[in-house]
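Lecture notes, continued. The same structure-token format from the folding unit now serves as the input rather than the output. Read the line below as a description of shape only.
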């Protein structure tokens, strides 16, 4: 288990993004309605549908890459997919952070930072 920390971090990111993507996919209307209200006073107010779709796709890509990366790391010590998963996760979180800051939801932005730290740690461990 030379890569235990990396595998655990990839599992954390995979669970985070697959669950979030699942939630967006199966509760699309609820998410869209909440986000339209959340971004009503921002420059994104007319782009909420497109932004939600973009985030959904990035979350699912991030989650799948982290799953594949964890398996690759466990089976062959390969780091490629895990690194891509961690980078995609970090980019996705930066996009979410940007949205929260734009909406002036500073508590929401602070929460995203909690997820960003392990994502960047994973990038560092797998680089």
């Amino acid at each position: 288990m030379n890569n235990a920390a990396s595998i655990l971090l990839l599992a954390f990111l995979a669970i985070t993004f697959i669950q979030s993507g699942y939630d967006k996919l199966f509760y699309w209307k609820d998410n869209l309605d909440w986000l339209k209200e959340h971004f009503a006073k921002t420059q994104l107010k007319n782009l909420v549908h497109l932004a939600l779709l973009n985030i959904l796709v990035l979350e699912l890509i991030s989650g799948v890459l982290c799953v594949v990366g964890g398996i690759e790391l466990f089976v062959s010590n390969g780091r490629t997919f895990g690194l891509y998963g961690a980078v995609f996760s970090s980019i996705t979180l930066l996009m979410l952070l940007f949205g929260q800051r734009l909406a002036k939801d500073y508590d929401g932005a602070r929460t995203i930072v909690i997820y960003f730290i392990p994502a960047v740690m994973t990038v560092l461990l797998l680089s």
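Point for the exam: The chain has five helices and no strands.
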